[in-house]
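Before the break, one more example. Copy the sequence into your notebook; we will annotate it together after we see the structure.
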Amino acid sequence: MGELGNLKNIGKMLEKQLNEVGIMTPDDLYALGSKKAWLRLKAIDDSACYNRLCALEGGIRGIRWHDLPLDVKNDLKQFYEDFHDSE
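Here is what the structure looks like once it is written out:
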């Protein structure tokens, strides 16, 4: 496992997908942000879900995604729903 795998919530499969979309290091993920990273993942994997979006945000913040503040979860949920409404 590479550097991304050292982040919370980032397992081997998610790290592999992040690498496939050009996100190779934690700094790449931090710079891009969870929403843009998730959009890249969604482009290659239609099963990318809200939980994966939260996992990315948690990885960036260094916490389990279940422990994200409620306002952050609500913001991510709105982003996720807006994305699906626009499809």
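DSSP finds five helices and no strands in the chain. The helical segments are 12-20, 26-32, 34-44, 50-61, 70-86. Try to locate both features in your own notes.
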